[in-house]
Amino acid sequence: MNKKYLFSIFSLVVSLPVLAQNNQSSALNEIVAKAIDYYPKLKEQKAQLEIGDIKTDISKSKFRPNVTADASYHHVYPNSYVEQGGNKLEFFPLNQWNTAVNMSQLVFDFGKTNSEIAKSKSEKVLSENLFKNTSFNFAYQVANVYNGIVFLNKSIDAIDAQIEVLNGTKKMIESRIKYGVGIEFDLVSTQVKLNDALNRKTELENGLKKQVILLNTLSGTATTTDSKGYKLFDYELTEHNADSVFSIAQSNNTELTTARSKQNVAATELKVTEKNWAPSLVFMGGLGYKNGYLPGSLYDMKFNYNVGAGLSIPIYTGGRNDNQHNISKVNYKAAQYNLDAVSINLKKDIEQNIADESTAKQKVIFSSTQLEQAQKALDIANSRFKNGVITNIELLDAQSNLLKAKVDKIQFEYQLATTQLELKRLMGIQFWGK
Hints:
434 residues; alpha+beta; 4-stranded antiparallel sheet; two-stranded antiparallel sheet; 9 helices
């Protein structure tokens, strides 16, 4: 055959698993992206992010003028007057009217409002990081459900292969009995193994249905048919370095970022309460119409205006300001402890997962060899059984060993894929589309 064709066929054989792996990754990425867009709890949290901008705008509004339109009426009694030359001279009207447009403007408050604006901005960042952390954990929860479906699909395939082998053995024994060279005990023993395999398949299919229902609930999709094609784990036969993973996690881990944001909010809260004793200088003014002016009739509405400034200096607040400041100091210290705890747990989780990754990787490699040996042992057992060298029980043992080797390999691959998925989460890697 032409070398060119040989090379093309070889390339195709090599690339098929890669293409399948990419298709599986694309399916997972698509499911996770849909789940994040669909899940109502995430939508609720995302909607609340808008509150952060509103709070900041409320704080900034203290630098803007406060304008009000006011109108009032008062009836006073008794009247205040003097009599002079038989005339009654009143000092104020009994019915008092006042309409005015008043304005006040903060001029200077020694950084109090700026501290409140900084606090609002830090709270907004915290809300964004909380949302990101929740989204991350949710995405990886969906990915773990996906891995569970892959595990069950591969397990069902393995048990189907076992059922097919047992059915073949059963037919062979029935044929032997028919020709008087087989025994009923062998047939019953094989039937027991077959029934056990069928029961296990039923359990696996039930587990698969539950996982598909959970995936559909989380993602808002219907993957009942598609889920049967999810049969590839996403893992690599490599080991991560704890220091490198921890270094990446320092920048990207969402829980650590959230803990830092909480500490930042506590720090800005502390600065706000430090300004509780700061004075405030306010410009005030107003204009309008009111009665009660002399000369002329006290009941005539006359145009008037006023301008001025006010300085407010907190002197005594019943201990409220001091207590608020003390609470802020405690909150800041607690936020620091929380950050330390998150960092310590992160390092512990990374080291534990890397240890699990190393163990799972070795088991996957070993199980591949074990599977080859079990298949070879079964081939020999089949040949020896046909020649009457071994009993049916020994053949069934060889078949069971092959099934166990397959199931063990699937289990170890599942553990490795799950462990590496958790390492990605700890490193803050976003594997799905933004």
